[in-house]
Design the sequence.
């Protein structure tokens, strides 16, 4: 029998995972509750701009905030540990380092998991593209490759948002290095197959005449330290293989009884309550809503806000409110060459829009970490200065960008830009 929430004087709430969804929930929950936030990493990470670590336009410190400081400022407790076991029926969890905690309500916000889909050799020989540390490591390997003599090959696996943004950053930093060749391999019929075809056409035009090969309708079958084998054509030489080909559900969701099958996302009601345990809310990328949503940071933050309100309603015995997603446009950058603003099935393209992506990053980081004290003010000034010096000013000063601003390209499904 599932427990009914215990209405103690200070209800205990556990938040598992403290990035976009979990941290937002923590920041919204009242200090009246006893809230404990678990995450194995000390840093909140701003993932939408991690590709910029490849070119050095961003540095790791620009994309990280201290979880301990942010959670403490919200009046709660941060435990730097991964949750290994969660027993929703008994209201208990155990961390990987053996700490036990009890809770009345849990919010699970563990995101997704890196997945190489069983491709032989991939788990060992590719560099993942999932975190600040991953992209910082790729940036260092790229810099070392660029200094080496002789021809060097890089393979990017995946032609979705991350793959295209990674390619753009490599071109931003190393586009003039004739010894570096980049191949992007995509299984689908074109780059960003779910988006209007004009983006694929425009990226191809930008790549023409550069040291880049775009290969579509092709699957990677095996990876070794120096080759990427594909199902059509010859093996591709690769000194550096970057894996951007998607993520899957965390195995923890099934292990904790929140997903029906291994590899499944956790089904929730429209109020974000687990369909399997009434005392658990699942939010962010981990949640499978009745109507599927794109896995996006802004939805994760909206869910964090909604779940915090619903946990308080559940504890007060009030009825829950449905989550109403508010769609926002997506900004996809292709280095300093182009930026795409996607709104539904319409696209606006111009390299000058890079400043808008930088603006979203600056504003949302300041919203997550309002400059109320010395540390956050110092961090904000560092981010603003770094963004201005390394990204916005160089982009807007280029003659190409000024021309692009005057000539914004609009396109959508079927229409040619
Ligand atoms: C390269 C890249 C680019 C992206 N670009 C964009 C973009 O431009 N715009 C946009 O809106 N979205 C973008 N996204 C998607 C966006 O980042 C995700 O939708 C968002 O991160 C989801 O937030 P989340 O809090 O659900 O999960 P995550 O951000 O993945 O956070 C999950 C957290 O859970 C923690 N965790 C995992 N397991 C445990 C455990 N056992 N115990 C405790 N903690 C645990 C992790 O350490 C992590 O901190 C991008 C994602 C990537 C990877």
Sequence:
């Amino acid at each position: 029998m599932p427990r009914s929430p215990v209405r103690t004087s200070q209800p205990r709430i556990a938040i598992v995972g403290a990035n976009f969804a979990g941290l937002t929930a923590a920041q919204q929950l009242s200090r009246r509750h006893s809230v404990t936030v678990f995450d194995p990493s000390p840093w909140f990470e701003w993932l939408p701009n991690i590709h910029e670590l490849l070119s050095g336009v961003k540095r790791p410190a620009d994309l990280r905030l201290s979880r301990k400081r942010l959670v403490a400022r919200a009046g709660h407790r941060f435990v730097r540990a991964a949750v290994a076991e969660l027993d929703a029926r008994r209201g208990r969890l155990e961390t990987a380092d053996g700490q036990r905690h009890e809770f009345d309500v849990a919010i699970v916000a563990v995101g997704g998991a890196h997945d190489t889909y069983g491709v032989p050799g991939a788990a060992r020989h590719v560099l993942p593209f999932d975190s600040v540390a991953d992209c910082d490591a790729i940036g260092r390997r790229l810099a070392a490759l660029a200094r080496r003599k002789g021809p060097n090959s890089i393979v990017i696996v995946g032609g979705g948002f991350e793959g295209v943004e990674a390619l753009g950053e490599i071109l931003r930093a190393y586009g003039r290095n004739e010894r570096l060749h980049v191949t992007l391999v995509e299984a689908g019929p074109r780059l960003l197959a779910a988006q209007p075809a004009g983006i694929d056409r425009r990226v191809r035009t930008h790549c023409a005449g550069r040291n880049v090969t775009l290969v579509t309708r092709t699957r990677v079958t095996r990876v070794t330290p120096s080759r990427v084998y594909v199902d059509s054509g010859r093996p591709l030489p690769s000194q550096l293989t970057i894996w951007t080909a998607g993520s899957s559900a965390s195995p923890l969701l099934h292990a904790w009884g929140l997903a029906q099958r291994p590899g499944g996302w956790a089904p929730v009601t429209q109020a974000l309550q687990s369909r399997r345990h009434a005392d658990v809310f699942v939010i962010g990328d981990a949640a499978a809503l009745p109507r599927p949503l794109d896995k996006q940071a802004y939805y994760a933050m909206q869910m964090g806000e909604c779940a915090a309100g619903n946990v308080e309603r559940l504890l007060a015995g009030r009825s829950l409110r449905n989550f109403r997603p508010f769609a926002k446009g997506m900004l996809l950058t292709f280095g300093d060459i182009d930026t795409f603003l996607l709104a539904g099935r319409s696209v606006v393209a111009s390299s000058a829009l890079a400043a808008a992506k930088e603006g979203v990053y600056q504003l949302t980081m300041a919203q997550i970490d309002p400059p109320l004290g010395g540390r956050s003010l110092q961090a904000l000034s560092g981010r603003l200065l770094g963004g201005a010096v390394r990204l916005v000013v160089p982009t807007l000063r280029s003659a190409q960008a000024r021309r692009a601003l005057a000539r914004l390209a609009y396109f959508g499904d079927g229409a040619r830009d």
The first strand starts at residue 12 and ends at 16. The chain has eleven helices and 26 strands. The first helix runs from residue 20 to 28. The chain has three domains: 12-40+81-114+247-315, 122-243, 330-412.
